Amino acid sequence: MHEHQDLFKSIIEDMIPFNKLVGFKLLEVRQDFVSILIPYRPELIGDIRRGSIHGGVIAAAMDAVGGAAAATTLKHENDKLSTIDLRVDYLQPGQARDMITEATVVKSGSKVIFIRMVAYHDHRDKPIAEGRGVFSVSRTKLHDPAAPVS
Question: The pTM is what?
Answer without folding.
Answer: 0.88
